Amino acid sequence: MIFNSDIFLLFFSVVILLYWLVRNNQGHRDWLILIASFLFYGTWDWRFLGLLVLTGGIDFVCAYKISNSNNQTIKKRWLMFSLLSNLGTLGFFKYAGFFLDSAFHILENLGFHSTRPVLAIILPAGISFYTFQALSYTLDVYRGQIKVETDPVKYFAFLTFFPQLVAGPIERASFLLPQFREKRWINESILLRGVWFILWGFFLKVVIADYFAPLVDMVFSSEHLGGPVPILATLAFGGQIYGDFAGYSLIAIGLANTMGFELSRNFSHPYLASNIQEFWRRWHQTLSTWFRDYLYIPLGGDRAGAFRTFLNICITFVLAGLWHGANWTFILWGLCHGLALGFYRIWRTSKISSTIKIPQLVSWGITMMIVSLGWLFFRATSVSHAWAMIQAVINDQAPSWSADYAIAVSFGLLAVWIYDVFNKRFPWEKVSAWPWTTRVLMKSILLVFIVARWGKEPPSFIYFQF
């Protein structure tokens, strides 16, 4: 069940109706959210509900044991059990085939030949997201940053909260779990804000991301392209993945708002960033802060000298790339950003940066070039595919339809730029002060675009594969 489908609209209509009937009873509310979340997740593959309950249950027990022990050694043992359980499960389902294939490829290059086994492993939907959310809970209990939850219904309602279960935002237990312990008041302001975010989310996904999708697929699935077309397709993919993922996040935030819950912001006009560090403060914010707090800082952060800081940044982003999927392209994507951030930090802390001022427009252009190079690896099916795209730009001539393609891509990128500029200039805090007639008109315009682009067989969200 995906957000941009008729069945989900029917599902959520029933859930929100029931929710409003029981919203003043916390116990009934939590049970409704839990049952709705299980039904939502079960539509993907009901067999993986057991895996979700098992891994979540292990973290529930581990956190309880950590909280109720005064022995630091015992606390560490339960923490390690939680880490091994979560990362072991994630590693098996997501990376077993990748590492096995890589090992056999290395052996074949060394002259050893044998039959390569085939692992037919189905990847559970959202496993990367709910695993990190569960880990943050156990780690925060261990650090004493949040009190343990003794009510399993509240805990599982937090862990499986259906608006953000499959593709985030990756919520911290310290932020979302306390909301399940409170009575949530649904006033007109949060309800209207939720509707506003839902409409913008559907606009980004249905109108912008799904507009780019066939343009991107046409080029990345072709073997005979050259000139500027691969560059244009990579820029189009940058627009597609932004509309797709930011759209999902906004819909998730809006759905949660209509039930009185707050979710974390996940995107903040990333394509207006003027340097790579600023880009990562604006792009997939809940993942970048997760890796910062639970990996980069424990590795030593920037406390152990320039070289170690550079290394820590690269390690963090390589693992962030691997988190996205079992492919060397994702590792290279992470390495690209890690190196860029490492060199940017060296530049920013050097004396020369205080004397040589790079114009903001130039800095923005360099940043977008780095981001786009990363998107090439992210979208390519393999490293050889990415390299072939690069060679096509250098060696081949443009196809006859490249001019029409450039116009189509430019039109979509203009829509992305207008969206970013508009929402930066008019955030909800300003929009909420508009006359109600203006707000209704704006929502009506968005709705017209969405309905016009709504399809009977809607494409899934890109990040569902992670």
Protein model, in words:
It is a single chain. The protein is mainly alpha-helical. It has 2 domains: 6-183, no CATH class; 189-465, no CATH class. It has helices spanning 6-22, 26-42, 47-67, 72-109, 127-142, 152-159, 173-180, 188-220, 229-258, 276-282, 285-299, 306-324, 328-349, 352-355, 360-379, 383-395, 402-425, 428-431, 436-453. α3 packs parallel to α5 (127-142) and α8 (188-220) runs antiparallel to α9. The protein is globular and about 65 Å long. The two termini are 16 Å apart.
Write the layout of secondary structure elements.
Layout: H1 6-22, H2 26-42, H3 47-67, H4 72-109, H5 127-142, H6 152-159, H7 173-180, H8 188-220, H9 229-258, H10 276-282, H11 285-299, H12 306-324, H13 328-349, H14 352-355, H15 360-379, H16 383-395, H17 402-425, H18 428-431, H19 436-453
Any key phrases for this structure?
single chain, 466 residues, mainly alpha, 2 domains, 19 helices, 0% strand
Helix content: over 70%
The 3D shape can be described as globular
Report low-confidence residues grouped into runs of 5 or more.
Answer: none
Number of spatially distinct domains:
2
| Distance between the first and last residues' Cα | 16 Å
Instruction: Give the class from helix and strand content and strand pairing.
Output: mainly alpha
Q: How many beta strands in the DSSP annotation?
A: 0
Mean pLDDT: 89
Query: Major β-sheet, in short?
Result: none
In DSSP terms (H or I, runs of 4 or more residues), the helix count works out at 19
Fraction of residues in β-strands:
under 5%
- Gyration radius, in Å: 23 Å
Sequence of secondary-structure elements = HHHHHHHHHHHHHHHHHHH
